[in-house]
């Protein structure tokens, strides 16, 4: 069996898994942090600042050469690493919550870049829109307590493990950024109002509909649905050779950019690789054909929509 790539060599949250006393203290600390976060929540018009370059520079390796009709131009300014200047931070203004609250692996906001070490915005400048996914440990799912064993379950995933997986997936799939994936502009450290220092992943803002909303809006247009299905199937198979199992393909994790002309297909964009499984594709035992789960998860999703069932059946008959 092929090896998994170890993308979580360390975590900022350390304790003895097998010690009930250590686990208990860790849970108490988390609950205290959660209370502070809920008492001081992020809200629209808040600003978050960070200094210095991305914690993981490899996430900003982007495909800047158009290779597809669905290619989107990156924000060139954000491809340049910020200068390590304490007087010139990168500043984001929160505009709209996209996914927030407790038991989320990321607090996701639509943001505007209002300051950057490489530029100064002005009132006349159009806003630079991005997405910030803030990996806030206190608001992530809490560890499950195994009563019989009196310890935290080892299945628990600290939040920085999620961030590291997304970083590694962005690196391995950099050639798909700007088409099938959003651009990744780096992971930085921010401090929200509650004072809990947290990593934050800045990515491209995709102005589109969720997969489910797009399908229902075009449920009577078989041609558009066939174009969407074909586009996604063409690109999803490109994850396997890089050893990536997304492991969370659902309607909220596929955004669809409507076509700009009748002759062009809609452009699906796959987001959220926080649950991904990453295999070592250099292992002699690795076989990308075995990573059928990406394909299977998408077919299961399509099966939830009556208007897509005929399209899926027609594809299966051709295989």
From TrEMBL:
<dbReference type="GO" id="GO:0004672">
    <property type="term" value="F:protein kinase activity"/>
</dbReference>
<protein>
    <recommendedName>
        <fullName>Protein kinase domain-containing protein</fullName>
    </recommendedName>
</protein>
<dbReference type="InterPro" id="IPR000719">
    <property type="entry name" value="Prot_kinase_dom"/>
</dbReference>
<dbReference type="GO" id="GO:0005524">
    <property type="term" value="F:ATP binding"/>
</dbReference>
<feature type="domain" description="Protein kinase">
    <location>
        <begin position="94"/>
        <end position="319"/>
    </location>
</feature>
<dbReference type="InterPro" id="IPR011009">
    <property type="entry name" value="Kinase-like_dom_sf"/>
</dbReference>
